Amino acid sequence: MSRATGQKPGQPAAEPGVSWADLLAALIEAHGTLTAVAWKLIDHADGDDVASIERALRRLRTRGQRDGGVWGTRLLRVFGVPRPIEARLRWMGLYHSPFTDLPLGLCLDQLRIWDRPPIAGSRARVWLHLGHASYGLRARHKDDAALHVGRATEALAGLPRDYDDARIEAALIAAFLATGEDALAAIDRADALVATAALAADDRACFAARIADQRAYQRNRACDHRGALAIYAALPATDEHPFASYRRDAGLAYGHHKRGDRAQALALAERACRHAGDGGYVRLRAMGLLLLAAIQGPDGDPARDRAEAIAVRLDDAALRERVARSRADARGSP
Description:
The chain is mainly alpha-helical. It has helices at residues 20-31, 34-40, 50-60, 69-79, 83-93, 104-114, 126-138, 142-156, 164-177, 180-196, 201-221, 225-233, 242-258, 262-279, 282-296, 301-314, 317-331.
């Protein structure tokens, strides 16, 4: 057996992503034995006994990432994707996870690797749709983003309330893509779901900050900077999660900048950059540096250069676009 890989000589290399063997291993860990898994499938077995189901599951275990056939479909219908595996998919689908801070090409590679059986045939695939939608936004492929958020919304129609966090994510992406009343309606949908969904404290804080950010964006576009500042000021002052703290302090910094309070704006922008760094949010740090550059005025080029270096390393089209706008604003270009 190879010490480096844990595989026997001549054994095929493990495929990236999740295979049927991985799925079954997680189910066996959760339920104790393969026999216990088979017993839970007995009501869906069309007259088969437990021994024959076990044999079918052992065959399924050798399918790799090929179509799982009837038994693959039954397994996913009864059990879904085990929580530890779905947690990794969820990480790829949430905008406020550091997945969106990976280089753009690497994000796409990961989404494609996971979008194979057994995941491709499971309800957990909704997180891959959301991940693809976020990728589309970063790559400035808005049509692709809209396509994937539409597919996510269709998939969510038949899923239980356990997936309300995915519904919130879909609504926030839809709001970002929309304009006017459509954007406000999508933000309202997300807000209503946050009020009733069973969420972890950090996710609740991040979603609340994202909703506030989108509402404030609408106010700032209408030049209601005082109203936007009030939205950010209403967020909790406690630091529940670095992403949420970044959104709050960056929004406050922008509001104070627009009101002409340079010292307060600078202090808040620098604090926002620290939150981004503490959370490992490279893209947020770049956006914070651009905010800092805008507040610094003629002295802002070094911060802007650092933000551009991050955008180039991440190959992030949306971030590069922000840098270009920042440079044009600094030059006074229309």
